[in-house]
Amino acid sequence: MTLRKGENVPLRTTDVQVEFRRRQEPGTPRTDVCALLLVDGSARGPDDLVGPGAPRHPAGAVRCQAGAEVGGTAVDTVALDLAGLPAEVTSVVVFARGDGGAFRDVPAMRVRVTGADGAELARYDCGQAGAETAYVLGECYRRAGGWRFRAVGQGYASGTGGLAAAYGLAPGELPELPAAAPPSAAPPAAPAPPRAATSAPARPVPATAVPATRVSEWHGAAASPPAKVTLTKQAPAVSLTKQGGTSGALRVSLDWQAPQGRWARSSAVDLDLCALFELSDGSKGVVQALGGAFGSLGQPPFILLDGDDRAGGAGENLTLNLDRVASFRRVLLFVTIYQGARSFAGLHASVTLRPQHGAPVDFTLDECTVDSNVCALALLVREGQDLVVRREARYLVPRRGVSPQRTVDYAYGWGLAWTPGRK
User: Segment Disordered: which positions (predicted)?
Assistant: First the structure.
């Protein structure tokens, strides 16, 4: 099955291989492929990175196989035993690192997913790369007791530092592609002792081996993670800045359950997490799956939608680049029902904002009692150097002939010019 960016497909087997293929030509940037294990959208530490320097995860369920070349095409493979992953691991991100150029200079990039028997399960042609030096190819993730593969196709011009921040790590915790070793007429008799670390990848240091560094990066002098902040009608706002969320990535997750009873149309509900943005230069727009407006972290609007999850039941994710907080004037997070339900009634939706630094913020949506297919979730407003999150949890009912997007625009006075779109 050929996928487009953001689309996903169920995996009929848990023993899969994800191949990264690209054509080898003179002057093509050097690339390799890696995998990063995630728990609820965030990485636990550099020890969950699998790549040429650490080709096998400690759990044994993820292996990196690099170096094959077939007819001028380089092929790196990540082999996954999805059934053998630790129960807390919810997804595995497969990404490529580059050296000597951007991914727009890597010709004929393709992802191919196969089963143990070699049968093709999915493929994705990566034809929209730009100035990125780290590029997320795809993601295998848990869904309703099974696994799915999603074509991601999202790059980071800031390299693995930007990718690390998007998944909750400090920029230096994921290594860049090591510099190529200088040419030599004969292989060295023995590896140079400590200096070899500068020219060959080393096994990433487990997070437990450097507790002081990680505590300093994430929580200052605190000995334990900051307490979660839950927004309510009585206490609807919180300052991310005062909670320590002043830089790095802010990951926004929307979770829901399949509806039951008279409101349900099908077992699969497709909710779309979206964001209206207004930047400090006055520019406005929307980040959403409709029309493929997935955004970007490294350039305006500094907001990225991970992909379009059409299976429903376990949520979608947006990431905001808090290193560019001065560029934001306001951001409205909202959700629409694309298909599978006529209302939010019975979905039991909840929202969680996880800053890279500081306390997570969450809230649940009130019970829906109206025929609403669009809900304003939260409004993020910059007040001086402070970024304030305000719980909205506001169900809106579109007028006849008015789209959900236009409805939320009218309610909050964004003033965009809308045109019909499709996924």
Answer: 178-209
What's the CATH code of the domain at 50?
2.60.60.30
Host domain of residue 57: 8-170
pLDDT per residue as tens digits for the range 18-27: 999 888 777 7
Rounded distance, CA 123 to CA 258, Å?
A: 29
Kindly state whether residue 212 falls inside one of the protein's structural domains.
Answer: no
Alpha carbons 391 and 410: distance in angstroms, whole number: 18
Same domain, 143 and 282: no
Question: What total number of domains does the chain contain?
Answer: 2
Residues of the chain predicted below pLDDT 50: 179-225, 261-267, 308-314
Phi-psi region for residue 415, left (φ > 0), alpha (ψ -120 to 50) or beta? left
Tokens (6 digits) for 119: 């049968």
Residue 288 near residue 306 (C-beta atoms within 8 A)? no
- What six digits make up the tokens of 172? 């230096």
* pLDDT tens track for 196-207: 333 333 334 333
- Has residue 393 been placed in a domain? yes
